[in-house]
Write a structure and sequence with these properties.
305 residues; alpha/beta; Nucleotidyltransferase, domain 5; 3 domains; six-stranded mixed β-sheet; five-stranded mixed β-sheet; 13 strands; globular
Length: 305
C-alpha cells in the first residue's frame, strides 16, 4: 500500500536455527533509506529492539503476541510488528498495520510469505486515513479520530479530503481527522494507464511531462489517479521508485473536477478523464497546469496544483 508510514529502521528477530532465513528476509527489506538488522531471539530481545520503526519476527505469532504484549503503550508510538512463520508461508501484521506493518508484509511477499492483512480499510480495498495522510505528505493532528474516519472509509462514507488554506480557525468534532501539511511540494501528477503498463513506462511519462512544464521530481506532492487504477502494479511501483504516495479518488470526486479534454474513459467506462480530473482534484487550488498528454498509447499524464 503505497504511502503508508515510513519504516526506516527494522529488526528481524529469529531463533538461531533460523538465522539464514532471517538474513534472507532482511535482505528483502533493505534499501537505500532503511537499516535492517538481524537479532537472535532471547528473553529480552523485543525490549532491545522496541525503539525500531518495525520488527519482523520469524516465529509463531503466539510467541510474538505474548512477548510484546507488556511493551504495547500507544499505537502511534509502538513499532510496526509482523510475524512470519518458519516456512515463510504467511506474513501477519500484528501491530501497527496502518503504521508500516502492512507495508512490511507486502514487501516480504517477494521472499515468499503471503501478506495476511486484517485492517478493516485495507481488507475492504480502501485507503485508510493514515495511508492518505502519508501520500499527501501530511501528519495527523487528531489521532483519536481515526477510528471513526476509517470506519467511514470502510463504508464508503468519508468522501474526499477537504483542503483549507489559512490563516483560518476551524472548529471540529471528535470524529474529524485533521491533517497538517508537512510537504512543501506544490504540484500533483494526475495519471491513468492501460492495464498491465510497466512501471518504467509510467515513470518516464511522468518525468517527461514534468520536464516539459519546467518542473522536476522535487516539485511533486503526490501522484493522483482514480479508484479504477488504485491497484495497478506498474503505477504503484513507479510511484514507489520516486518515493511518492498515491491518492486514488472516487468517481464522484472526479466528476466534480472533470477536465477540459475529451477522454475515452467517458465513452468506454462511464468515468471522467482520470488524468486531468485527478490532477485538478488533488491540487491545492484545483488548477490544471498542464493538460493531459498520452505516452505510447498507454499512459495519460496531467499536472495540477
Amino acid at each position: 500500500m503505497s504511502g503508508e508510514a515510513c519504516v526506516d529502521s527494522v529488526a528481524v528477530v529469529s531463533f538461531e536455527r533460523e538465522h539464514s532465513t532471517a538474513e534472507q528476509l532482511a535482505e528483502t527489506l533493505r534499501n537505500d533509506r532503511r537499516t535492517v538488522e538481524v537479532s537472535t531471539y532471547d528473553d529480552g530481545v523485543f525490549e532491545q529492539v522496541w525503539d525500531r520503526d518495525g520488527i519482523v519476527a520469524l516465529m509463531a505469532s503466539g510467541i510474538v503476541v505474548r512477548k510484546i504484549a507488556p511493551l504495547l503503550a500507544d499505537k502511534w508510538a509502538d513499532p510496526a510488528v509482523v510475524a512470519v512463520d518458519a516456512e515463510r508461508t504467511w506474513a501477519i501484521p500484528l501491530v501497527g498495520g496502518h503504521h508500516g506493518a502492512n507495508r512490511l508484509a507486502e514487501e516480504l511477499a517477494s521472499a515468499g510469505p503471503v501478506p495476511t492483512v486484517t485492517t478493516a480499510t485495507d481488507a475492504a480495498g480502501q485507503q485508510g486515513v493514515e495511508t492518505r495522510a502519508a501520500a499527501l505528505g501530511a501528519s495527523i493532528e487528531t489521532p483519536d479520530s481515526t477510528v471513526a474516519t476509517n470506519l467511514a472509509v470502510r463504508d464508503g462514507a468519508l468522501g474526499p479530503i477537504e483542503r483549507l488554506d489559512g490563516p483560518r480557525a476551524v472548529l471540529v468534532e471528535e470524529d474529524v481527522t485533521v491533517l497538517k501539511r508537512t510537504d512543501a511540494a506544490e504540484v500533483v501528477i494526475g495519471t491513468g494507464c492501460r492495464a498491465g503498463t510497466d512501471a518504467e513506462t509510467c515513470r518516464q511519462a511522468w518525468l517527461d511531462t514534468l520536464e516539459a512544464t519546467g518542473r522536476d521530481r522535487s516539485d511533486i506532492e503526490f501522484v493522483a489517479t482514480g479508484e479504477l487504477k488504485a491497484d495497478e502494479p506498474g503505477l504503484l511501483e513507479a510511484a514507489a521508485s520516486l518515493d511518492l504516495g498515491v491518492v486514488a479518488f472516487e468517481k464522484e470526486t472526479l466528476e466534480r473536477f472533470d477536465g477540459p479534454s475529451e477522454s475515452r474513459a467517458r465513452e468506454l467506462l462511464d468515468w471522467p478523464g482520470i488524468a486531468e480530473a485527478s490532477a485538478i482534484a488533488g491540487g491545492r487550488t484545483h488548477e490544471l497546469l498542464a493538460p493531459k498528454r498520452t505516452f505510447e498509447d498507454r499512459v495519460t499524464v496531467a499536472v495540477g496544483r
